[in-house]
Amino acid sequence: MTDPVRLPDPAPAVAQLPRGSGVIVRHTDPRARAHLARALAPLCRRRRVLLLIAGDPRLAAELRADGVHFPESQGAEARVWRRRRPRWLVTTAAHGGQALQKAARAGAHAALLSPVFATASHPGARALGTVRFARLVHCSPLPVYALGGITAQSARRLKTSGAAGIAGISGLTTG
């Protein structure tokens, strides 16, 4: 996931991602999001890395992105955009069990559940921890990706959680 403060230039990190990974451009400033997404789109295509645009389906369509990611508060949009763009991957953010159920009812393909661990993105937010995260994953009707405080070390603690994968900002980059 992109972040204007913690990962101002995500291109080097994207260049290291394995084929089939994904990038969610989640800059909240519309101008910055569009500028970054336009810069990353060719790199993602070359690397065969999926490109999702957070909260901006029109920009995703313009760039022929692979899909969209919605914040939890806009999760209901998943249904609309799955219908309009059936080939898109549509994901939502979730912060608990009810949000996972809502995302599933709205037709999201997957959810990013956070924060699993303490994170710089949301200082002071109560982390789910590995046990609660695993419980929520097992009760979820859709694939769940772990987000929040994810590093190479913390990811190992999620091996048996049932998570579909992991997501992060700066904790997975090298250098």
Describe this structure in words.
- It is globular and about 40 Å long.
- It contains 7 helices and 7 strands; from the N terminus they run αβαβαβαβαβαβαβ.
- The model has no long low-confidence stretch (mean pLDDT 94).
- The protein is α/β, with parallel strands linked by helices and 175 residues long.
- The chain has one domain (11-166): TIM Barrel (Alpha-Beta Barrel), CATH 3.20.20.
- Helices cover 36% and strands 16% of the residues.
- Strands 1-2-3-4-5-6-7 form a 7-stranded parallel sheet.
Instruction: Give me the CATH fold name.
Output: TIM Barrel
Q: Portion of residues in helices?
A: 25-40%
- The secondary-structure element order is HEHEHEHEHEHEHE
Broad structural category: alpha/beta
The CATH superfamily appears as Aldolase class I
Major beta sheet summary: 7 strands, parallel
Strand content: 15-25%
Put simply, the count of helices is 7
User: What global shape is seen?
Assistant: globular
With strands numbered from the N-terminus, the spatial order across the biggest sheet is 1-2-3-4-5-6-7
CATH class, named Alpha Beta
**Annotation, overall tally of beta strands:** 7
Q: Please give the radius of gyration in angstroms.
A: 15 Å
Let me know the average pLDDT.
Answer: 94
Number of domains: 1
What is the name of the CATH architecture? Answer: Alpha-Beta Barrel
**Which consecutive residue ranges, at least 5 long each, have pLDDT under 50?**
none
